[in-house]
């Protein structure tokens, strides 16, 4: 396409995209966000980034022309990251330097809520830019390309361009799996896992002391790197089987092992660090005791931070939320718990 025949030269798109929570964790990468191991996650329903982009054709520039505001405030740190992001995706969006973009973004969840905002932010941006691409060129980009663009912003974002359960990373157990993009889980999801809940217990609202970027880097020379990669492959197989069969016992075993392995890897890297807090451990032990006493299906997972995600099926919602209110909420910063559940994925408004 020459620069004179765009179908549309100005307009506005609005997109919402969810955060996601990984069960088998992506930890360690090669450039640029090529994962060392496969991962699986589900998208959340309430933890959403809303992004709207107003676009207008301008004479071709040498640089990207855009403004960015997060919750109506300019954000210099993210503006700089956007240049890197645009450079990485420009080959898919050749018009990027011929349009001015006014990007406005906001989250439905509070900052430092323990919910990864980079996943929902880059997924929303990738989908919005793909929609602009369609509006101005008439060409529709495929979901793998959109997921790949999101990955070039932040690895886990590639799983947030879809709803429900998604996998990312090459694994012999999934045909067509790729390190470049995520895809919806290919095997069937048993009803037990179709409406899974995630209540996020905010042990701390502080900024984490070591970023995921640094954590991924520390996997490069990690003494347990090969073992970790083998473990993640084995866990992918077990978890997809558990999700297909509706097996909460096996799901629990793998999910908690993955969460604690992630933190074990942090504690055994050089330099070593620990993101868990005393209250994280208190909650973990309470969850395990409660499960033993009641036989109720619930388990925990943990992202790269101290907050604990309590996972349970819809059928146990009442009992688990009563348990959280009675026994766990007191371990949370300002008693804060965010109830969420599996969601349908991004929307173009
Ligand atoms: O996408 P990043 O670089 O923020 O890394 C995410 C890493 C974990 O959240 C710990 C695991 C995952 O698979 O989402």
Q: Could you walk me through the main structural features you see in this protein, from its secondary elements to its overall organization?
A:
- This protein is α+β, with helices and mostly antiparallel strands and 349 residues long.
- 36% of the residues lie in helices and 24% in strands.
- The protein contains nine helices and 14 strands.
- It has helices at 76-89, 117-137, 143-153, 191-194, 212-218, 225-245, 248-267, 278-294, 317-328, and strands spanning 10-24, 29-30, 34-35, 39-57, 65-70, 73-74, 99-107, 165-168, 182-184, 197-201, 299-302, 308-312, 337-341, 347-348.
- The strands form three sheets. Strands 1, 4, 5, 6, 7, 8, 9 and 14 form an eight-stranded mixed sheet that branches.
- A hairpin with a 3-residue loop joins strand 2 and strand 3.
- Helix 2 crosses helix 3 and helix 6 runs antiparallel to helix 7.
- The radius of gyration is 20 Å and the shape is globular.
- The mean pLDDT is 96.
- The site of (3R)-3-hydroxy-3-methyl-5-(phosphonooxy)pentanoic acid has 14 residues, from helix 5.
């Amino acid at each position: 396409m020459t620069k004179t025949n765009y179908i549309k030269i100005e307009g506005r798109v609005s997109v919402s995209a969810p955060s996601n929570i990984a069960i088998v964790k992506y930890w360690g990468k090669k450039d640029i966000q090529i994962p060392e191991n496969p991962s699986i996650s589900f998208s959340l329903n309430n933890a959403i980034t809303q992004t709207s982009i107003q676009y207008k054709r301008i004479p071709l520039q040498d640089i990207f022309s855009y403004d960015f505001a997060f919750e109506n405030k300019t954000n210099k740190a993210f503006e700089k990251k956007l240049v890197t992001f645009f450079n990485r995706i420009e080959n898919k969006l050749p018009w990027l330097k011929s349009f001015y973009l006014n990007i406005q973004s906001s989250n439905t969840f509070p900052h430092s809520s323990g919910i990864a905002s980079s996943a929902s932010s880059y997924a929303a941006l990738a989908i919005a830019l793909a929609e602009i691409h369609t509006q101005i060129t008439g060409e529709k980009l495929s979901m793998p390309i959109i997921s790949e663009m999101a990955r070039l912003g932040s690895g886990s974002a590639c799983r947030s361009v879809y709803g429900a359960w998604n996998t990312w990373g090459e694994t012999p157990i999934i045909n067509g799996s790729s390190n470049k993009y995520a895809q919806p889980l290919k095997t069937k999801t048993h009803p037990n896992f179709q409406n899974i809940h995630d209540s996020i217990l905010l042990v701390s609202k502080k900024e984490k002391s070591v970023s995921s970027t640094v954590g991924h880097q520390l996997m490069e020379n990690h003494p347990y790197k090969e073992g970790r990669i083998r473990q993640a492959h084995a866990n992918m197989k077990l978890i997809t089987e558990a999700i297909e069969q509706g097996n909460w016992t096996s799901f629990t075993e793998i999910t908690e092992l993955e969460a604690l392995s992630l933190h074990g890897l942090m504690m055994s890297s050089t330099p070593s660090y620990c993101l868990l807090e005393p209250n994280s451990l208190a909650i973990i032990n309470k969850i395990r005791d409660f499960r033993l006493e009641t036989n109720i299906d619930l388990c925990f997972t943990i992202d790269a931070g101290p907050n604990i995600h309590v996972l349970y099926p819809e059928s146990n919602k009442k009992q688990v939320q009563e348990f959280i209110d009675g026994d766990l909420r007191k371990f949370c910063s300002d008693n804060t718990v965010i109830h969420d559940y599996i969601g349908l994925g991004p929307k173009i408004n």
